Structures are given as C-alpha cells and as structure tokens.
C-alpha cells in the first residue's frame, strides 16, 4: 500500500524525482536561494514525511475561502446527532405536499422520538434507491443504515416554521458511504423547504452539488495532503502534495 511504499522509499539511499529529464540535477541549496517559479530536477533523500498515518492526510477544503478542516470522526458525529435528538419532532411539519412522514418512539430507556420524511415525486414515493429522505432524532448507527438503503439521507431538526439542517459540523448529506460537509464560514443555510424545487423536477437526480446549492451550502471537498522533507547534503527542502 501507499504507506509501506513511502517507508521503503525512506529506507533507500536516494529518491529520484524523474520529472524534467532534460534538466541536469540541481542542489537543494541552489533551489532554496532561487526565485520562484523555476523548473529543476533533483536527486535527494527522503528524510521524513507527515502525517505518519495515511488517514490523517485526508482533510476537508473550501475552494471559496481556501480553509482546511479535519474530517470529523464517528465520535464527533455521534455527539452532534445526540444533541439534535433532544429536540422533539414538530408534528405540524409532517406530511406536506412534497414529503410523507413516519414517526415512532424507540423502545430503549431514552424513548427517543424519531421522524423520517420521504420526499415524493409527482405525489408518489419512488423506489428506495431513488429516494431522498430526511431524518430527525436518529443515532449515527441508524443514519448509516438508512444511507445504505436510500439514495440520499439528510439529518434535520424541527424549528417552529420548517425543517432545518443541523449545525454544519455534521454532514448536510449522506449518500452511500460518502458524507458531504459544508463550509461554516461561507454557507448561508436555507430551510429544507428549498428542496421542494428539486423534488418538482421531472426526474430528480439528487446530485450533491444541486442539493447544496438549493440549501445555501458551500460544499467542502475531500483533499489529500502530505509534507515530504528532502535532503541532498546541500540543504533540506519541504515538498507538499495537495490533490483532490
């Protein structure tokens, strides 16, 4: 795998970067004293790389404000969903013209109230693999189960007037095993009623970019970032890898 490949590279006496074959090798000290941008070919040893664990290389990036944030782990998401479960679903917001609602009470000690809202198309429910649903009061485990069954899952909470997205620390959308996040700084979240525009389309595709746009969310993109320190006896150079 990539991690063991990096470790093997680190153990070699030299690492050769093979781009710019037409250029002679240039010492790192010369490069460090040069003005960018220039093209060079180097022959150097990989001294260190960060992060040491591959999964830590994946971050969330906002292309609008250029910010980076850590990908929330399961514990973080569980806490956010637990907090939202403390709000009881508002029955006045159930069974509208564009979604049907089902509610029940869990059998555990907490007796949580859960509501699932199934978005309709042409006043009919679609097949699960084509359906967008919204869930109130669900745990992370319950949300994951639903995301495997339905095309899109949006965690929501009740307000007085409409359903709303959770805090953007949580995903605004889950699709299969992928969680989609929005930028807190750049987003101006709208109420869930905005989704009815997409539901009214002839064939709703439920594309994450379209969902984000109508909900006023600026989506974050998953990026891969690493830092390599290269040495050749004349100096040390930090090289950064940044890719979507």
Number of helices: 6
Give the biggest sheet: 6 strands, antiparallel
The figure for the number of domains is: 2
> What is the H/E string?
HEHEEEHEEEHEEEEHHEE
The low-confidence parts are none
Gyration radius from CA atoms, angstroms:
24 Å
Distance between the termini: 19 Å
Q: Compute the average pLDDT.
A: 88
Gross morphology is: elongated
Beta-strand share of residues: 25-35%
Task: Give the class from helix and strand content and strand pairing.
Answer: alpha+beta
Summary?
The protein is α+β, with helices and mostly antiparallel strands and 244 residues long. Helix content is 20%, strand content 29%. It folds into two domains: 1-64 and 223-243, no CATH class; 73-209, no CATH class.
Name the descriptors:
244 residues; alpha+beta; 2 domains; 6 helices; POT1_C_insert; G-rich strand telomeric DNA binding; telomerase inhibitor activity; POTE1 protein; POT1
Describe this structure in words.
The protein is α+β, with helices and mostly antiparallel strands. The protein folds into 2 domains: 1-64 and 223-243, no CATH class; 73-209, no CATH class. The chain has 6 helices and 13 strands. It has helices spanning 2-11, 28-32, 74-85, 140-149, 196-199, 208-214, and strands at 15-16, 43-50, 58-61, 68-70, 99-105, 113-119, 132-136, 152-158, 163-165, 173-175, 178-180, 221-231, 236-243. Strands 1, 2, 3, 4, 12 and 13 form a 6-stranded antiparallel beta sheet that branches. The protein has a 5-stranded mixed beta sheet with strand order 5-6-7-8-9. It is elongated and about 70 Å long. The chain starts with a helix and ends with a strand. InterPro entries: POT1, POT1_C_insert.
């Amino acid at each position: 795998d990539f991690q063991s490949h990096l470790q093997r590279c680190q153990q070699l006496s030299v690492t050769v970067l093979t781009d710019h074959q037409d250029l002679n090798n240039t010492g790192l000290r010369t490069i460090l004293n040069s003005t960018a941008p220039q093209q060079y070919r180097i022959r150097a040893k990989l001294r260190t790389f960060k992060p040491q664990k591959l999964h830590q290389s994946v971050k969330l990036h906002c292309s609008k404000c250029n910010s980076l944030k850590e990908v929330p782990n399961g514990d973080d998401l569980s806490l956010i969903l637990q907090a939202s479960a403390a709000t009881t679903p508002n029955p006045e917001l159930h069974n509208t013209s564009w979604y049907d609602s089902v509610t029940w009470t869990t059998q555990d000690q907490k007796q949580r109230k859960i509501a699932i809202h199934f978005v309709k198309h042409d006043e009919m429910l679609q097949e699960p693999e084509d359906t967008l649903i919204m869930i109130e009061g669900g745990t992370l485990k319950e949300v994951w189960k639903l995301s495997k069954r339905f095309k899109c899952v949006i965690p929501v909470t009740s307000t007085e007037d409409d359903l709303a997205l959770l805090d953007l620390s949580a995903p605004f959308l889950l699709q299969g095993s992928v969680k989609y996040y929005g930028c807190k700084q750049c987003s101006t979240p709208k109420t869930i009623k905005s989704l009815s525009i997409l539901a009214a389309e002839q064939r709703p595709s439920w594309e994450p970019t379209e969902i984000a746009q109508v909900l006023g969310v600026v989506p974050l993109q998953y990026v891969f970032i690493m830092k390599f320190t290269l040495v050749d006896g004349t100096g040390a150079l930090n090289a950064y890898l940044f890719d979507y």
